[in-house]
Queue: 2 jobs
Job 1
Amino acid sequence: MAVGTRFEALNPPEMTLGQKLAAVNWLMVLLIVAIASVGFAMLYSAANGSVTPWAYRQAIRFGVGFVVMLTVAMVDVRFWMRSAYLMYAAVLLLLFAVEVMGEIGMGAQRWIDLGLFQLQPSELMKISLVLALARYFHGLTWDEVGNPLNLLPPLLMIGMPVVLVLRQPDLGTALMILMGAGATFFLAGVRIWKFLTLIGIALAAVPIGWQFMRTYQQQRILTFLNPESDPLGSGYHITQSKIALGSGGLFGKGFLEGSQSHLNFLPEKQTDFIFTMLAEEFGMVGALGLIGLYVLVIAYGFAIAIRSRSQFGRLVALGVTTTLFLYLFINVAMVMGLIPVVGVPLPMISYGGTAMLTIMLGLGMVLGVSVHRDVRIGRAGVDED
Amino acid sequence: MLKASEQDSQRIFTRRALMLAAGQLGLVGALAARLYYLQVVEADRYSLLSRNNQFNLELLPPIRGRILDLNGVPLADNQDNFRVEIVREQTVDVSATLAALGSIIEVPEWDVRRVLKDVKRKRAFVPVTVVENLSREEIARVAVNAPYLPGVRIEVGRSRRYPFGELAVHCTGYVAAVSENELTGDPVLELPDFRIGKSGIEKVHDLEMRGTAGQRQVEVNALGRIIRKLPGDEGEPGRDIRLSIDINLQRFATERLTRGMAERIPVDDPRAQVALAKASPAMLAASEAQDTILLDKYGEVVEAESGSVVVMDVHSGELRALVSAPGYDPNPFNHGLSAKDWEELLSNPRSPLTNKSIAGQYPPGSTFKMLVSLAALEADLAGPDTQFFCPGHLELGDTRFHCWKRGGHGTVDMVGALEQSCDVYFYEIAKRIGIDRIAAMAKRLGLGEMLDVDLPGERRGLIPSREWKQATRGEPWHRGETLVAAIGQGFVLATPLQLATMTARLVNGGRAVVPRLVRDPDGNARNFPPTGLDPRDLDLMRQAMSAVVNGARGTARAVRSRENDPTIGGKTGTSQVKRITMAQRAAGLTKSKDQPWRDRDHALFVGFAPVEAPRYAVSVVVEHGGGGSSMAAPIAADVLLETLRIDPGGSAPLSAVPAADPRRRG
């Protein structure tokens, strides 16, 4: 440990708002705005060169999300730590509420309508679970993490929302929650062999899970395994998406010129398949450029996590960053036919309010960790001294 | 302790974060690799697939070539078929729009129901045909009211039209929808409106008349809606086919043949009412929906005659009329004939679907006698002066061969035998020359051979020979069969087209002319090889055939040429369909008209005119028409005179032909 660090640690000063704003990683914010702007352009193209119905609304949402992000970043991380369990409990309750509402109402309802946003508790769960787990592991020493009994509460914390989300049924989100939580476990220092055991158990549960899946979910996986078997049926999305991607070539067909997208061969081009549209219009160069922007944001996430002085901050920053990565990877791999179509949006670009809010909330946390990187937090979530 | 723990956590976190980063970087690498594979390695394949998605090739059906007569009158052409369509997505209420349309033009209730059903089944932008074959006046009314008819539009297609109906059907043939086994992989055949030639010229020259389809690329979206039409290749219309027949002569010959020896009177004539009152129900049914009926000399309603008339230019071989009666209307085939109508055509005893001119095979009867004479003359086994005595029959072994004239003709020479059509004379000739010489001569004159006229279904006829009988029946040839063959009976069969060709070759100066129906596009005359017959022999035949019509004892003297009329030559023929038994002969039943129609003799006549410088040959076959003299000769004479009057495609003016002389006969 460097001397300077120790000095600061000994005198944790309360930062003013101005200091906090100055401490914000503005380059990262710039990258986020850049990614969102690519999204506006693509939504403009998806509407055949019109800001309505998508680009305009998406911009407003991003504006709201942007304010949310900066606000969250200004709030002291200790506040988030203290309220982590409460937030988790609240979101779990909401999840349970939509579940009950869905049972009473008509079929699979996953959201609560809030006007501009449709609040989807399963999305919020992605962030609040990361927070809750971070708080839990923050309170454990390396040795305590080694005690299997200590892993039971966090497993329960993961299990409840995953089961609820699976029942919605939303396989993609459930898997993302599971993988995001898994990453937190991994980072918290759960022993590798335990980790492998858990993965083994999960794989063993796959055949059982298959039984519980809805027919359409089973069909999606079967279609993924052989998309050409039914080109006009369930395989249509993947096949058309691959055609759009492939025909884009190295440099693309040009902005607003993607024939697959504009002639509606490409399904869901404004939401899940928007990456395909970008790759069709801007080619491999454009697609790699966008992935590069994400990689930079994720790299900032890693750097912020590693530089944070609290285990809570580290786990939150990297938990959220990994969630962002999962969004990106699952969506892009899905539209390229590498994994089944599970309905995960491209973060900050796909049209839709909830995912945008979740991501901006999460990124606000990451920025907050960065702003408050030197704040030391005691094991119970209070100041150390 | 806390510090140590914190340091542990941080150390482990950093290590694991780096592992996680490595894993994530690896996955991003996988994404990049996949992008490279799709967008660079497989780019060409996907580009092609994308273009196939984006563009549909729309075929533009070519305009089918017309069929024209000698003077350019269309016998088959393409009619604009105006139809009204409705597009569901362009109208608020389809039923209301249809009702509005129904107040402007007639829309049958049945069509309204069909349209309402169709619009639900098809995509909203797909037009549904409401009514077809609208007149220009109806179209104008719809067009004027267009503002009140949202979603209604007028489209024009083409349908094949045969303006002369059944008159020329055996030449033109007809077109109909492409059937499964006619698909060749040519996509134009799969267009729903495409029609293909099924018979006649339409079939034989189908490819020439079809032309080549144009293509146009049409940009479509995922639902198949047309976004944009790109200019393309217009295609090439089919070629017109010009026939050698003259539709006016064709009409005259058809009417003259079907009338036979009856009189054609309008239905509203008082005599028609009297006749219809006592007509049989079958006859009444046949006369229904006719403007005219046929009355025989006893004032009874009779059926139209069936048979064939072929008129041919003796020098060029061009057919000026090619009649096969009855015919049928080719127009309904375009939209599909009902099973009932088709069944009726098939079961009609007068076989309207058969082109009798080329596929009807009849015993030529006495029209065969000229070539028997020629065979004898050429072999020098008989001369113009060779005489035989005809007692009315000839004995050969224990068989008696009768002459048509019971009392016999007495002593006749060759011209006399032809003039009076003495059978015994030709029995004697046949005994001298044998079947082989007869068969060889028949083939030189075009019988028993395919003439390869431009129509499908042509038959060969039959000229029997020793080899033929041995091969098909496994029996040797009997001498008696030569005698029967010499009067054109027995095994001998010929088509009307062959008989006309034979006649043309007899009188055209010795050229082996071949009939043709389609004019050479360049108008080139064909050179035909000589038949190799002695001109003196041919002159003798011409003289004899003139005597048949103009001689005092000629079998066709009833139609002998009037003064100022061009002279006609020819030969009658009456071919037995059913052998008259000894019992019937004893009972005196030798006359055809006492027998049922099916059993009656065919009436034949082959002729030419003018005798001095022959230009046209004709053959007439009236199926079960009775006698060649009484039935076929008058028809042939009228047709020949009409042919000379019209002189279709004629170049050499004939001073002897009067401008017009409406003749009345029998």
Job 2
Amino acid sequence: MRRLVSDLPRLAFIAAMLAGSALITATSLASLDDENLSAFVMEKLPVRFEAAWFLALKVHLVAAAFSLPACVLLLTKALQRRLTVHRWLGRVTGGVVLLALVPSGAVLSLEATGGLPSTLGFLVSGGLIAFFMTRGILAARRHHVQAHRRATWHVLAQMSVAVSSRVLLIAFEAAGLEHEPAYIAALWGPVVCSALAVEVLSRWTLTERTPREVRPAVTRPALAVAFARAGR
Amino acid sequence: MKAAEARVTEAVVKPLTTFEENRSRFSRARLPPKERRVRVTQGTPSIDASGRAFFPFAIDAKWGAGWQANTVVGCAYVDGAVLVKRGDDHRPAESLLGKNVKPVAGACVESKDSLAAVVK
């Protein structure tokens, strides 16, 4: 019972992200149709380099529909116990994020509602995802479990902005805020807060759970051995 | 003029409201406005290059407390066609409902010949 209570925030976060991802995917499917354009697409049109923008949108939607739930699943204990599955799903997800999600998001950010502040917000978020995904991959290859965990938390935290910013945007607009300021605040708030939350959480868990002397290096030898056994 | 206003309401405002009611709110797209109003911006019709008469119109929308002018602009032809502007082009009103329709060349642009005739 105590374990269930202590796991409750994590489980609630996983459930919220999976539900949010499913909702975003369902909503975004309309944007893949060339004949019936979604409200989001119509709001953007006309855009410069329309063909490139449409291609980036489609790549981004498909990549996001896969990578957000994949990142959530990779952080579940059930999948972390199955190291081979975790490793391969992590590789595929890392590839999709670095080669498809982040570059296409950067292209879309150039036409973001709200102009430069929104473009910068999306670029910062995408930059954090790319930076920490790369660090996460390198840490996994070196069997630095804590560093891998911290980096992947940052990746998921920035991906969660997709859900939290939409929720905030609905709340702000329902409260009567102007669309553009609401859009910018609903983007930057979650980007900054998610990054800070991971920093606070990772420092707290390191201090609480990890003996000081093993903190910077391989913190879970057994897991590291299992990593090695599963093969590179 | 009243007929043009009624035509725009029927062809644009009502279908657009229904379209927006059916779309998901969990999107980055702006929430639909609470209210829209149609303004026909000219008392007399203009004539385009093909000789068809049209009234330019604008639709204002209300999200919060104030009205935002010209959220949609276009023209209503006396023969019934309604076109809306996207970028530099005018397209059939269905384009606001997500239909990827092609622009109509020369539509909603007052012909220089008709202007000259008025001046003479």
